[in-house]
Structure formats: C-alpha cells, structure tokens
TrEMBL record:
Superkingdom, natural source: Eukaryota
Record field: compositional bias (Low complexity): 63-78
InterPro entries in alphabetical order: Abitram, Single_hybrid_motif
Entry protein name: Actin-binding transcription modulator
Gene Ontology CC annotations of this record: nucleus
Annotated spans, Disordered: 56-85
Signal sequence annotation: none
Gene3D superfamilies: 2.40.50.100
Amino acid sequence: MELVRDARSVDIEYDLAAYGYLDAWKDRPMSFLDRYFTTRYYCAPSPDATAAAAAQKRKLDQLTSDPSDTSDPSDTPAPSDPLPPAWQYVRMAPNKLCVIGLASMHPLLDSSCQASVGRVVRVEFVQHVADAQVRGKKKRGAQRLAPDTPVCLVHTDRGLVFSVRAAVHGQLIEWNARLAETPELLYTHPEQAFFAIIKPGTLDNTKIFDRCHEQPNIL
C-alpha cells in the first residue's frame, strides 16, 4: 500500500521575490486603475471667460482693500481666455460601478493653468448628494442622477467655481466625504480623490457612456 502524505503537512517554500509585482500598485496606482477599469471622459462646463474675469476682479479688490495684505495685485495673473475644457474621467469597474473624478488635463490639475485658475481650497458637495443615505443591498435611498446632474462644486483661491457632474445615468452609491475634508488629495493622492461612485441603470456600455468620449478632445 502506497502511503500518501497529506499535502497540508508538507513544508512548501515560496520565493516571495517572484510575487513582488503584486505590490507594484502601491508605487503606480494610476497605471493599475487604467489596466483593470474601462475609462471614458466627460466634458463638464468650465467657468466662462466673463466669470473668470469677474472672479479675478474680486480677488484684486480683496487684495487692495486688505491693509494687512502686502502682496502686489499686479502680480496676480489674469485668467486664461477661454479656460480649457473641464474633462472628468469615468472609470467603470468589471461590476459596472462607475467612479467619477477629474482627469489629469482638467484645468484644476493642469500645471499650466494653475497661475490663472488657482489651487483648490474647498470641495462642496451639493445638498442632494450630501444628504443621500444608501441602505441595504438594494441601495434604498440612492439618488438618481443624470449625466449633467451636479455632484459638487470645487472652489479655488482665485474665486473660480468648477461644477463636477455625474457624467453617467445611474444611482449614487457613495460620495467621497474625505475629499470634502481634505481637498489637497486632488494633488497629493489623485487615485483617492474620486468624487462619487455611481451604479448605472443598465449593463449596456453604449448607454452607460452615451455622453462620454473614449479620449478627451484637447482643444
């Protein structure tokens, strides 16, 4: 009779170096997001040139009216005319949940726009999003959103306000309260700086992305 040894009692040595690639996502999380998520782009409206100019004037008025502020108003650059398109990303996971955030070419993240647009100082989720309470597996209480539905407003130190939209049809599953508390995540940890997670109302990718583009059209 042949003795068969229980495999669970055998000492097996693993070469941990062979599995080192599994930790690569810690250094390059964005590349792994692109690998496993289907990515599309949605163009939200940017503040127009008139609004940008008005915001710039308010900023200059504030500088000149504050005697404790020693900065030179003439050093404050004028806003670009027009502002670049405000591209958002939509990353769809294999289970069809869609993650919404700012694309790298969005004026708020594009370093070439920072002088005129400014840095983000506040992320304000709109009331119907902030009040949403989703319960249970059937997502009771989830808000229904359309692609153009505002999700939040992003304020800059230049007085500009950018509206972030839902980008797809679906139910709001989660909004990123951490981003509201720490807007700097947009710069320091962009992989964590999503705005919302939305569950589409269909499994048809064509309908899910009917307002999105495969690639941003840089103008």
